[in-house]
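[09:14] KT: can someone run the structure on this one? pasting the chain below
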Amino acid sequence: IPQISYASTAPELSDPGRYEFFSRVVPPDSYQAQAMVAVVRALGWSYVSTLASEGNYGESGVEAFVQSSREAGGLCIAQSIKIPREPKPGEFAKVIGRLMETSTARGVVLFANEDDIRRVLEAATLANLSGHFSWVGSDSWGAKMAPVQGLEEAAHGAITILPKRASVPGFDEYFTSRSLENNRRNLWFHEFWEDDFNCRL
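[09:31] RB: done, structure tokens below
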């Protein structure tokens, strides 16, 4: 079944041998990592830490960042920290503690999910370290407010990456006007309808 994704950025999905019927309208994380290296270098940083959510997105993103930084040269990774998929209580305080072990690496490159970003910022606030770190966040943070709401002081000055996007005239109107009467060609639409409206057709 051919698939087109609007948000899947994992680099391995670019392998046509494994994902012959997969396409996407967003660039893979390898490009995002290159942009992040360019931002870090433009800021004049030479010593940074990386922070990743455990899993494909976070780990692949950091791996791509490390690879791009090696190719670009002049950038040292102080440490690479992984946030467990199911963090235990106190895990984020430990993350901040580990970042402070190399406290001169104030730049932190984040490839993490929204919830992990929020909890890292909370832990930095609780440790009285708002403003100590300079964050460079991936597209999971992007322009979203949820990770920083109420934690603006800890996030102040963060630079986040987001793929270029544009509105397609008429798309929202078309998308929101879909109904059972005018959308019969989509075989799964009735399942969505039942789930969304909690009904049985």
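[09:33] KT: thanks! The longest strand covers residues 76-83.
[09:34] RB: yep, looked fine to me
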